[in-house]
Design a protein that fits this description.
With 366 residues, this protein is of the alpha+beta class. It has 4 domains: 24-40 and 290-362, Beta Barrel (conserved putative lor/sdh protein from methanococcus maripaludis s2 fold); 60-87 and 164-190, OB fold (Dihydrolipoamide Acetyltransferase, E2P), CATH 2.40.50.100; 89-162, Helix Hairpins; 197-285, Beta Barrel (Elongation Factor Tu (Ef-tu), domain 3). It has 4 helices and 22 strands. The chain has helices at residues 4-17, 89-124, 130-162, 209-220, and strands at 29-34, 36-39, 43-58, 64-69, 76-77, 82-86, 165-167, 172-174, 184-185, 193-208, 228-233, 245-254, 259-266, 278-285, 290-295, 300-302, 305-311, 317-321, 323-328, 331-336, 343-347, 359-362. A hairpin with a 2-residue loop joins strand 16 and strand 17 (305-311). Helix 2 runs antiparallel to helix 3 (130-162). The relative contact order is 0.20. Residues 133-160 form a coiled coil. Residues 200-284 form the Multidrug resistance protein MdtA-like beta-barrel domain.
Length: 366
């Protein structure tokens, strides 16, 4: 009597013994990336704030009623643009009055000079005493002094008259006006508006003192260059297209935070950067720094330190201890333990162990 089940068992056993691929265990699939030498410069991110290079309150320097407002709020203006006009009748009259006084003083000086010269001639002919000459000379000096004083008063009056025209001291954007036509303004009236210069723009940020000292030591040792590329990331996550330049490092340390204020300058011809905006500041070494690197996800750690899983030419997995000097922009810099071109596993590490044969596929785009 034949047993059908026995034939099935024998067939399966023979298939296994004969090495039938359909029944053999499949190699686990992993994704690998070769270790590459790339330009991976030292970089650091900081929180900063944009600060206008110039910002002033526009105030009236003389008192009077406001005659006109000659700008639109938010308007871009150039240096010298008329912003406000104060009624100038009183100040123009003051200038005219002083000019009249100057003419009278000039006539008085001319007369004093004539009297002095006459007294000198009489003294020479012994028909006038020395005292008369001295008095005449004193009168000339007094008339000259009066003329100097009146010319000074005229200059002040003309200056006050010029102050009735309130102009922009530099190129910038005018803010909201705090007064209307007809309002009484003066030195005590407060700010009439604000003028802000937006191009260029400063970005100020704080750097930990320890980080600054470490950087300067690395520069001294020649490990990094002294120059740096500066970029900012705007609140919406976009990178501002123009790079900046560092132009100031404070000599004082903030005792509360143990940080140093650093400032960078950025061109802002389109006015995209606004005063007071919170931004991220990125500093990057200016010179190239080519290093051996692998993706950060390839690096694993245990109690003994960092390691990567390397897939050799025979598709076998090897655990390789590595020394990672730093990690940035998704890459880990390998100081030792790996060679350029060796494939490391970035996806599927949990499915393998050393010595196992794997089905390795390159990462997309790699």
């Amino acid at each position: 009597m034949r047993v059908p089940g026995l034939q099935v068992i024998l067939f399966l056993l023979l298939a296994v013994l004969s090495g039938d691929p359909a029944q053999a265990q499949q190699a686990p699939a992993v994704i690998v990336v070769p270790a590459k030498v790339i330009d991976l410069r030292e970089s650091a991110d900081f929180t900063g704030r944009l600060v206008a290079i110039q910002k002033v309150d526009i105030r009236a320097r003389v008192s009077g009623f406001l005659e006109s407002i000659n700008f639109s709020e938010g308007q871009k203006v150039t240096a010298g643009t008329l912003l406000y006009k104060v009624e100038d009748g009183t100040y123009a009259a003051a200038v005219q009055e002083i000019e009249g006084s100057i003419q009278a003083a000039q006539a008085q000086l001319n007369l004093a000079v004539i009297e002095r010269d006459r007294s000198v001639r009489l003294l020479a002919s012994n028909t006038a005493p020395q005292s008369q000459v001295d008095i005449a000379k004193a009168q000339v000096q007094k008339a000259e002094a009066d003329l100097v004083r009146l010319n000074g008063a005229k200059a002040q009056a003309e200056l006050n008259l010029s102050y009735t025209r309130i102009t922009a001291p530099f190129d910038g954007v005018v803010g909201l006006t705090a007064v209307n036509v007809g309002a009484l303004v003066g030195p005590e009236a407060g700010a009439l508006t604000t003028l802000t210069r937006l191009d260029p723009m400063y970005a100020e940020f704080s750097v930990a003192t320890s980080l600054l000292l470490t950087y300067r030591e690395q520069v001294r040792q020649g490990k990094v260059s002294s120059g740096a590329n500066v970029q900012i990331i705007l609140p919406n996550g976009t990178i501002y297209p123009s790079k900046g330049t560092l132009n100031f490092v404070s000599s004082n340390v903030s005792q509360g935070t143990d940080t140093v204020t650093v400032r960078a300058e950025f061109p802002n011809p389109d006015g995209l950067l606004l005063d007071g905006t919170l931004v991220r500041v990125m500093l990057e070494q200016s010179d190239k720094q080519e290093v051996l690197a692998v993706p950060q996800e390839a690096v694993q750690r245990d109690q003994q330190g960092a390691f990567v899983m390397v897939v050799g030419p025979d598709s076998k997995v090897e655990l390789r201890r590595v020394d990672i000097s730093r990690s940035t922009r998704g890459q880990s810099v390998v100081a030792s333990g790996l060679k350029e071109g060796e494939n490391v596993i970035t996806d599927g590490v949990g499915k393998v162990r050393p010595g196992m044969v794997v089905d390795a596929a390159p990462a997309a785009g790699g």
